[in-house]
Amino acid sequence: MIRVLLVDDQPLIRSGFRALLDTEDDVTVVAEAADGHAAFTLAKRHRPDIALIDIEMPDVDGIEATRRIAADPELVGVHIVILTNYGFDEYVFHALRAGAAGFLVKDIQPEDFLHSVRVAARGDALLAPSITRRLIDRYIAQPLDSHAGRRIKGLTAREREAVILVARGLSNDEIADRMVISPLTAKTHINRAMTKLGARDRAQLVVFAYESGLVTSRGT
Predict the structure, then answer these.
(1) pTM for this model (two decimals)
(2) Does 144 map to a domain?
């Protein structure tokens, strides 16, 4: 059962998402919150699999809520998905850096929304290659993080290759095909890289790969 925490300051939005989620046998909404402070409190109480968090809220916004949840070692299993009205923008980028696994636009089709919840629950990032490209072009064009570059040196050659392919938007199966290994081995390389780099999930791995210079918008 996928346990979901809904966070949005608009009751109508929350009720709409809840009504949709309640139709699914493998999904349950464990709690709702109207601001980021309540989101963190309820995440601690219920330990959901997914926290769907609106990015713009009064007092404690979605970015700060993401940062608090992602920083708490007791909530490492909570996958945070940002909800936004506007698509990819600077706020979404900062949420990804803070620990979000991806984002959804609120006018998403119901079937795509439900699919995305299940994807996030598996631990996969909600970042299509096209979104990754926009992230690169708009927000990673800045001086490289030398500290990140030093940490990259701790990866094995195969782990570095796996990180590069994750940053290019490939799935585990596609990475396995490219590296001529099994999907399980590909997943192992990715998980080890995340552990060494301190990345919470694949989304942070993508950001890290570009900030460190391991991958650039011109290719590797």
Answers:
(1) 0.72
(2) no
Tokens of 31: 């709690």
Which of 193, 188, 186 lies closest to 212, judged by CA?
A: 193
Instruction: Supply the DSSP string of 6-58, one letter for each residue.
Output: EE-S-HHHHHHHHHHHTT-TTEEEEEEESSHHHHHHHHHHH--SEEEEES--S
Q: What is the CATH number of the domain that holds 119?
A: 3.40.50.2300
Which domain does 171 fall in, by range? 150-212
CA distances from 171 to 142, 164, 175 (A): 27, 12, 6
Last residue of a domain, one of 58, 91, 126: 126
User: 184-200: per-residue pLDDT in tens?
Assistant: 999 999 999 989 988 87
Q: Is 208 exposed, middle or buried (0-12, 13-18, 19+ CB in 10 A)?
A: buried
Rounded CA gap, 212 and 149, in Å?
A: 5
Question: Does 142 fall in a domain?
Answer: no
The string of pLDDT tens digits covering residues 141-167 is: 554 455 656 777 889 999 999 999 988
